[in-house]
Specification:
The complex is a heterodimer of chains A (359) and B (382).
Chain A: E1 2-9, H1 13-24, E2 29-32, H2 64-73, E3 79-82, E4 85-90, E5 96-100, E6 103-114, E7 118-120, E8 133-135, H3 136-145, E9 153-157, H4 161-172, E10 176-182, H5 191-199, E11 204-206, E12 208-214, E13 221-226, E14 239-242, E15 245-248, E16 252-254, H6 257-262, E17 266-269, E18 274-277, E19 290-292, H7 302-319, H8 327-341, H9 348-357
Parallel strand pairs in A: 1-2, 1-6, 2-3, 6-19, 8-15, 9-10, 9-15, 10-11
Antiparallel strand pairs in A: 4-5, 5-6, 7-16, 12-13, 13-14, 17-18
Helix pairs in contact in A: 1-2, 1-7, 3-4, 4-5, 7-8
Chain B: E1 3-4, E2 7-10, H1 14-25, E3 31-34, H2 43-46, E4 50-51, H3 58-72, H4 74-77, E5 91-95, H5 98-113, E6 119-121, H6 123-129, E7 140-144, E8 148-149, H7 152-165, E9 169-171, E10 176-182, E11 185-191, E12 194-197, E13 201-203, H8 209-214, E14 223-234, E15 242-245, E16 250-254, E17 259-265, H9 279-292, E18 301-311, E19 318-322, E20 325-332, H10 342-354, H11 369-372
Parallel strand pairs in B: 1-12, 2-3, 2-13, 3-9, 5-15, 13-20
Antiparallel strand pairs in B: 4-8, 5-7, 6-7, 10-11, 11-12, 14-17, 14-18, 15-16, 16-17, 19-20
The chains are: A alpha/beta (359), B alpha/beta (382).
Chain lengths: 359, 382
Amino acid sequence: MIKTDIVVIGGGPAGICAAINAASSGAKVLLLDRDSQLGGQLIKQTHMFFGSQKQHASVRGIDIPGILVKEMEEYKDNIQIMLDATVLGIYEDGVLTIEKNDDYIKIKPKGIIVATGASEKFPAFPNNDLPGIYGAGAVQTLMNVYGVSPGKSVFMVGAGNIGLIVSYQLVQAGVEVKGVICRGPRYGGYAVHASKLKRIGVPIMPGHRVIHAHGKDKLERITLIKLDENKKEISGTEFDIETDVLCISTGLTPLGELLWQMGCEMKFIREFSGHVPVRNEELETTVPGVFVAGDVAGIEEASSAMVEGRLAGLCCAKKLGFTNPEYSSLKEDYLQQLHDLRSGPVGDGIRKGLAKIVV
Amino acid sequence: MNKSASVVIIGGGISGCAIAYNLAKKGVKDVIIIEKEYLSSGATGRCGAGIRMQWGTEMNCRLAKYSVEFFETANEVLEYAGDVEFKQGGYLIIAATEKEVAQFQKNIKLQNSLGIPSRYITPQEAKEIVPHMDETQILGAAFNPKDGHLNPFHTTQAYADAAVRLGVEIMKYTEVTGIKVENGKIAGVQTDKGYISTPVVVNAAGGHAQIISEMVGVKLPLYSERHQILVTEAVEPMQGPMFMSFSQNIYCQQTPHGSFIMGRGDPTEPRDLRVTSSWEFLEEMAKTCIRFLPPLKDIRMVRQWAGLYNMSPDAQPIYGPVKDVEGFFLACGYSGHGFMFGPVTGVVVSESILGEEHTIPVDALSYDRFEKGELILEPSVV
């Protein structure tokens, strides 16, 4: 059985930052990820980030893991990284079991930081499992990680930032994007992304949903229907569009299974798209010594995930007796950064969600 | 929201639903089942779901045989829209010690005398029935081809649906917080959703039966023991019977859809009503399983869970009234076989409530057997 101070589960932006800050406070850290490289979803995000300099604004997502991994090297005596390692369970006595290349490994940490991220939501309609129907994450992986085109023509469901960005990237890669729909009366993403699409002639069609997919062995055609301002279907407005790929980008939901397993108190928070753990300002859950950071704590974005990771790493280490000499000023800085990222109208939902879940 | 009922049954597992169905079928109106969570959320839905008639006491043999005969026709009798998935692939109970050889031969004589078609077989014959077993690990085995496996969720739902059609009300996500007794008689049940006045309460609370009984001042000689189970990925059908050993603490069955489920308990654990999982179970279970069924080492497990055995001093149920509290009836203490006894529980407990003669004589299973010291020890439990 491996013994360590802190296990960080998930090597995305939140998990890497948590590992850095726990290690820089003096704790021995084991960072786990089920993928064969660190970076989480960043490894497929070729677009540039917003926010401020501290959260790597104007840097492309794919370049951020490299910057963070370099920072991690400063603390390499305190950080052990285990890739291709899937956490199977966390048991009543705090032991984690792991599968790595068909090996079964047990780990007993003193503290745990869960940074498992999120999974994609998938709307229900007949034939939604036909080959050719992808989540936006899979399309980005094919295109940006493996350089494989998902198809000749794509229809996008969902006009949040991911739906808009992926549509634009598909056009850049030479794929025809036949249209982007969303259920509400206006696209949900930033205007800067929507304008780019409009300029190259991709129609954004609010007030629609997919009600059926058609095809024999793979997707050939979809049926759409118009929705009124209350998102109710208007009968008689159905129409078909031919496409060989349907890309679903209707949001994410937190991957909180391990938190449920540990007995953390969970609450359904609409603004965070699912069940998230009740926690304090330091990101400690109701199970002492178990911290969270990033999308598993509520769907937000990578910038705040990185700051949450740093805060959780700092505070989890402190809890175990590893106090960073600059603990107070760092904590204040991270809380301020989070406050700034969540201010303004874009942060409305996040602030409402936090008010219900932070104790 | 206050209401009244003729009978309140505490517990929405197989026992509670079967008792409610039998009462309603006999014409009892206003029966209410109170369930803390959802149907089958306790011991019923967490059990290994094996069904066997190979017991070491005449009582348990009779109870089991009655239940098996019911399961064979359950879909039709309960007019169930689904399927209770009764697979009669048998039970192969291996003898790993000389003591077990002697016990099984004695058991089989008793079982055969009651019409149960079990037989003692050699290791080679056992290997023909379960070809992937290591027959060198055993001295012999008891086999009954009519034992099997049943889906606990569907079976409970079948009873519940039939009961509801006959007018039974099921209150889910409702917790009993107290039971009111006046002048030695049941007066009502307090729940977190309101008070129910009733002259009759049935304690079918599974792993929590001793807690319910304390609400009326009756201290049952019961405790709950955690038993754990793991389930593997589904593979091609390869094992007909349940493979089981009392002395080696294993049962292992392939379910109709292809996954293997296997489980065991640890009597040395603290008796604290936990239903969390342990990694020690996983490792010990896997080792034992592979010792007897070596090819299973290549199958991946997908999940594990735990449930409570409600243990009685003689490993047999407690059925019927409690003499100090009029209107309080027990259906608990199954010691790990409450699911397979569900049909007979429904029949005999409803008969106790209505003062009818029992279809199968179960007076020996009454609560006062402990006072009188008349235990009927069941030797064949895992």
